[in-house]
Amino acid sequence: MIFSKTLTHWYSINKRNLPWRQTNNPYYIWLSEIILQQTQVKQGLPYYEAFIAKYPTVFDLANANESDVLKLWQGLGYYSRARNLHATSKHVANELKGEFPNNYKNLLKLKGIGDYTASAIASICFNEVAAVVDGNVYRVLSRYFGIDTPINSSKGSKEFKQLAQELIDVNNPADFNQAIMEFGAIQCKPKNPDCNICPFQDSCIAFNKNTISDLPVKIKSAKAKKKHFNFLVFISVDQKTILQKRQGKGIWQNLYQFPLIETENEMDVKTLKPLISEHDLLKDISFELVQYNKDTIIHKLSHQHLYTKFWIVNVGILKEAGILIDEIHDYPVPILIGNFIERFNF
């Protein structure tokens, strides 16, 4: 009880003024929580404001085209969040008449909502005593209680969830949950936490044992795979290019990209040109191949590192229907492609 009272008192003094803290509307809370997954507040805030402005209600979001939702999401990464966001908005709008479930158990049934998000919405919007556990919470609890159970293990997830549930203020679950997340975000930070003014300094095990930098413990993930991507940026004499929609279940599903050639090794003009001469888009036509980026662009994803080159392919007329270069900014693309488009200044 002392822990929760100290924490919520700290929060009352130090909390940031954020727009989703001015409401308990489940649509706004849900939207903010999905955006802030894997995303810092300073990056997510403008996206939240953009979504609220364009889609002020769950019905507006449900009626949007997925392509428009992905375009607005562009740059946040983890695009499955945006696809699930759109799918869930349709379900809530059409099947639940715009009303979000008012409890943790039923919130969990919605696509894209897991334990953390369901707990956040249930506590903030409906005052349910459901403790949140995210990266910030893992860090605070592991340091304060000196817990070295790996946070990305099944044992760890159960242990920390149970502990958080025991600590939560049953009379004020909303403020407790927001307080512990805020404390981890701005006080008990991953690096250089501000321990000198921490209200838990005397009782924090990690501080007193000098193990702050060792906690929380996380099992190292498998080494990321290395891939070589070669994007073919077609430019025709009538100022058209080609963007292709990605299919399947990959991380960039339903986003657009330039035609891609994946190779086992890094390529140069001499080695790539014979390879792409047999490509369906280039076979039996003349073209000029120009390497755009001299240095390989390394785009790091959670499970793979993409060693990327962009190749300008100048042709007469495209072999398939393309798009006007002037329209290229209308399409949702991965940030890797978006950055190139901005640099190339189409």
What report would you give on this structure?
The radius of gyration is 24 Å and the shape is globular. It folds into 2 domains: 2-214, Hypothetical protein, domain 2 (Endonuclease III, domain 1, Orthogonal Bundle); 225-344, Alpha-Beta Complex (Nucleoside Triphosphate Pyrophosphohydrolase). By secondary structure, it is of the alpha+beta class. Strands 1, 5, 6, 7 and 8 form a 5-stranded mixed sheet that branches. It has a two-stranded antiparallel ribbon with strand order 2-9. It has helices at 2-14, 26-35, 41-54, 58-62, 66-73, 80-94, 104-107, 115-126, 135-145, 154-167, 173-186, 205-209, 269-276, 335-344, and strands at residues 225-236, 240-241, 244-245, 256-257, 260-263, 288-291, 297-300, 304-315, 323-324. The protein is built from 14 helices and 9 strands. Helix 2 (26-35) packs across helix 3. The mean pLDDT is 95.
- Largest sheet: number of strands, sense, barrel closure: 5 strands, mixed
Distance between the termini: 59 Å
**What is the count of DSSP helices, taking H or I runs of 4+ residues?**
14
Radius of gyration, in angstroms, nearest whole number? 24 Å
CATH fold annotation of the largest domain: Endonuclease III, domain 1
Strand tally is 9
In the CATH hierarchy, what is the class of the largest domain?
Answer: Mainly Alpha
* Helix-strand pattern: HHHHHHHHHHHHEEEEEHEEEEH
- Given as residue ranges, the uncertain stretches (5+ residues, pLDDT < 50) are none
Which homologous superfamily in CATH is the superfamily of the largest domain?
Answer: Hypothetical protein, domain 2
Strand content: 5-15%
Structural category is: alpha+beta
The geometry reads as globular
What is the count of structural domains?
2
Residues in helices, as a percent range: 40-55%
Average pLDDT, rounded to a whole number, is 95
CATH arch. level architecture of the largest domain:
Orthogonal Bundle
